[in-house]
Specification:
globular; 3-stranded mixed β-sheet; 13 helices
């Protein structure tokens, strides 16, 4: 049996007894593989993808999510979330993701689950995610009884990417794309204007050919994180000037290139270590 066949069987066992399933969907590789395997296990007519839409979701990510769900052949339902109305979310402590996911799953339970007759919700946590300490959103998922078929089946990130390739999903090699709020240092308020600046700067840099990047928001300073292999060309002409122009056009005054490269979860890891001290 192929990796996909084995994974499909494992996910099908996790979904045994589920009549209609909603998958909290982002268009990333984890939720896309989960959606495809769930559709295979239950049938496309018994699964819906649910995309939370708010200022923290980049327009490019929204478009890509629709494209992936369309290829899988599962309907995508958008639900508007209002995490920005929650003071705890705006305060941007290390638990920000908890309040974001709490808002998402509350909205799904109150609207989508009822309107689409869903008896279970799942999301794309994988076995590697379970071991991470910088994912407070997982606590909200657990509080709402959200299923984690990939993690429960023991599928790690490498397994998920391999399956995505076997399924020919367009997101198979897609870099991780955390929400825009993750670009703002903890305890600096999450505000729509900041999210818009980050989105515009990152979209402009992708048009310049950078696929994997983060623009961290430090007030007037944008700190640009790129894979180490991209640093030399970013610092050399003609891209250096184009990067500066693109990022300042998004509303930043200064542009800094971080020599450490991309640092996933750096804000949250540092904040967790010092939280409450």
């Amino acid at each position: 049996m192929s990796d996909t066949d084995l994974a499909a069987d494992a996910v099908a066992r996790q979904l045994s007894g589920v009549r209609r399933l909603g998958v909290a969907f982002s268009g990333g590789v984890d939720s896309s593989v989960l959606l495809a395997l769930a559709a295979r296990a239950l049938g496309r007519d018994r699964v819906v993808a649910v995309l939370g839409v708010s200022p923290s979701l980049a327009a490019d990510e929204r478009t890509a999510a629709h494209a992936v769900a369309g290829q899988i052949g599962v309907p995508l339902i958008e639900v508007t979330t209002h995490e920005g109305d929650r003071p705890e979310y705006r305060a941007n402590g290390p638990d920000r993701c908890f309040h974001c996911k709490q808002e998402l799953f509350t909205r799904i339970d109150a609207t989508v689950a009822v309107e689409h007759d869903l008896d279970a919700i799942a999301y794309g946590e994988n076995a590697d995610d379970v071991r991470r300490t910088d994912r407070p959103g997982a606590l909200a998922a657990a509080a709402h009884g959200v299923l984690t078929p990939l993690a429960t089946a023991g599928l790690a990130k490498a397994d998920v990417r391999r399956i995505a390739h076997e399924l020919a999903l367009p997101c198979a090699d897609k870099p991780a794309a955390p929400c825009l709020a993750s670009r703002i240092p903890h305890f600096s308020p999450v505000l729509p204007g900041k999210l818009s600046q980050v989105e515009r700067a990152e979209a402009a840099l992708r048009r310049l050919g950078f696929a994997d990047l983060r623009v961290r928001h430090h007030g007037e300073v944008a700190r640009l994180e790129l894979p180490p292999a991209d640093l030399p060309r970013a610092a050399a002409e003609p891209l250096r000037s184009r990067i500066h122009q693109a990022v300042t056009a998004a509303g930043f005054r200064y542009v800094a290139l971080d020599l450490a490269g991309i640092q996933s979860g750096a804000f949250t890891h540092a904040a967790i270590q010092g939280y409450g001290q």
